[in-house]
Amino acid sequence: MWVWALGVVLAGCDATCTIVGCDCQVDEDCAGLGPGGRCVGGACGRWPDAGSARDAGRSDAGPTDAGGGADAGRRADAGRSDSGADAGPTGGRVGPAIRTTDAVGMVVEPELGCLGTRTAPVGGGIASYDVRVTALGHADAIPGATIQIWTGNNPNTTGGCPARCVAATSGAAGTVPVMTQAGSWVAYRALAQDVTVGGVGESIVTTTLTNLEAGQPLMLLTQTTVSILEASVGVPSSRQTVTLLGRATDCLGRPIENAYVRVFDGATEITGTDQAQELYFEGGLPRPGQPSTSAGGEWAVAGLPPLDSTRYRVETWGSRSDDAPAVRLGCELMFGLDDSVSASEIGPLRGDGPMACGGSTP
Fold first, then answer.
1. What is the reported pTM?
2. I need a surface site. Which of 16, 165, 176, 264 has the fewest CB within 10 A?
3. What is the C-alpha to C-alpha distance for residues 101 and 96, in angstroms, rounded to an integer?
4. Interval 337-349: pLDDT, tens
5. Facing residues of 45 across strands?
6. In a domain, 22, yes or no
7. Total domain count, the chain
8. In a domain, 161, yes or no
9. Strands 37-40 and 166-169: what pairing?
10. What distance in Å separates the CA atoms of residue 331 and residue 261, rounded to the nearest whole number?
11. Is residue 307 part of a domain?
């Protein structure tokens, strides 16, 4: 299970602040971010002008820039008209090589021997868990949160809780009871609701978490955190949008550096358009303009339009060497409910993955 230390949510801010997401009350509090520093939704963000980066046509030369630099040409032939599960031989980028860190801190090549053959974990006997409910950027558990539990790891696209779903409310200790096969994947969904986190009232946005190993803690997202992510890439907080979050990992579960993410709605790529803004992280903090994952492997895509009854196909890509074209590393389906967040770790391609990704699962 991946856990972000998004300390930016709890950070203070003054005129010398150089971190996107610091607390603020007025635009002047964000002056340390330089031109474009604005206070949006109580958090500092960089905006290219008085409007949003979206309205400015992404003129900030961020991840969608087709000019020079490491990201050169990535979008020129990124395959937006991709017609099937295979997104093509390359992602339009050459290098830098993906890498990871081993148990003793050495930088090594990611282990990708399971690419295309990996499968979801097979659960053992039935086990009971008290699963802790938290919010990204907060240390305290959340009591009184209503959680949908999908032990089949298969949430629906409507937000309802039918027979294959169990709804539970976290108790005073901030945990929900879950009974499922030990070691299996479980999915969870929390619909939008008001909760108390560390004695402070917060609004949880609809959050869908998939591919979590049984017993792992849940990490929901507050409206404050989502506003920070949106502001850092210029997405107007007033829009009903979808935010996707994840981490790129290798066969050993280690985070992959220098990977990037591509999002598709059916046959059409959304990343690289004004409907989606990519965001990568360094040390748990959002770094606008960074073109690929850092050592933690974390990524986000904000500003996506909601989907009625389908899911986004989300792929991770990277180059095996500095002079090699990028190849597809992983692929999963993620949810696009109105005004929501969907989060999942994306490991190497699975043989039993979604059919839309080339796997065997409908």
1. 0.79
2. 16
3. 16
4. 999 999 999 999 9
5. 38
6. no
7. 1
8. yes
9. unpaired
10. 10
11. yes
